[in-house]
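Lab notebook, bench 4. Continuing the backlog of folding jobs that were queued last week. Each job is logged with the same field layout so the records can be merged later without manual cleanup. Today's entry covers Amino acid permease/ SLC12A domain-containing protein, a 393-residue chain. Filled in by technician R.K.

JOB TYPE: sequence-to-structure
TARGET: Amino acid permease/ SLC12A domain-containing protein
LENGTH: 393
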Amino acid sequence: MVFIFAVNMMGVRFFGELEFWFSSLKVIALIGLMLMSIIIDLGGNPKHDRIGFRYWKPPTGPMGTYLLAQVGGRKPLATFLGFWSVMVNALFAFIGTELIGVTVGEAENPRKNIPIAIRRTFYRIVVFYVGGVFLIGMVVPSTSNMLFIANQQKTGAAASPFVVATTLVGAKTINHIINAAILLFVLSAANSDLYIGSRTLYGLAIEGKAPAVFRRVNRMGVPYAALLMGLAWCCIVFINLKSSGSKVFGWFTNLVSTFGALTWMAIVFAHIRFMKAMKVQGISRNTLPYKAPFQPYGSWFALINTGIITLFKGFDTFLPFKIDTFMTSYVGIPAFIGFYGFWKIWHRTRLISLEDVDLLTGKREIDLEEEKYLAQREAMGPQTKWEKLWDAL
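JOB STATUS: finished
OUTPUT FIELD FOLLOWS
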């Protein structure tokens, strides 16, 4: 905690440099884990057992059952509930991918770099998230008891399905390497989340939606008051020192998933309104440095499906009914509606008409910054092939 706080206090340049190296090491670690899974699957393991797609066939199969006893042994329904449970967990795993938008204010030449970052985020999700899960499904059977043990452990390398894969084939020494990789992932996530949280709180204070004390910055432009508030919330991690900490962690996971989904829905709704406002005001989408594909259908699809997942994400709290998980799964919805309604009533604001939506404030500043950036790049001369490759990586 002290380390990540010190990093964030040193300014965005030092933070960005460190996060670059964190990201590079994470990519190397993830590629290593994926290669390890492929090698295990092809028989390069202590047991010399070529697995192939064995675990995709009965009786294991790629889709396990969930709450089979609670639904009266109806396997098709239990399989669907297993699929839906994975959807809910995937929601939690993907939360944070949207926060690249928070970095726009401090990014160099955002018109060029933000679209690049968005596209690379998509490729990383496809390769590392989807690809990683695909490979895990090849080397770990969905019926393995070790998966349930890992789920109960919740912490350390034992909670990783990659560890389950290495243990099943007798390669237990790799667990220590995976533990080091997990520590690296956690450090990077904590570093980024503290940065995002402090900037979000600072932005709210600038808009008058949070206490003015959080507007304070040091000489490097770091919102130290907001950073200290974020650090205070980091102390919640100490609850995990207790054996019951995993239960509280589950509550926070439910809360974060709900609020994250509501944030996605708000972003998508704002994007739909943004596109409609551009159309009404006669501004072509071709003038934008980045255009989201499949619009407006993609945004409507995301809005509706995220809403469905949010409403039904706590289905297992009814089998049987558990008040604690029910509250943490759904308390975010009335809280979100309540805060939104309170703001609207207290400040007597209304939904801005499409004709009056402000699409130009801040554009001039970005135009000037872009001209300055392009002039600096031209003075530096063209990039070599190695420099272009390094930037891409």
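OBSERVATION: The longest helix spans residues 245-280.
SIGNED: R.K.
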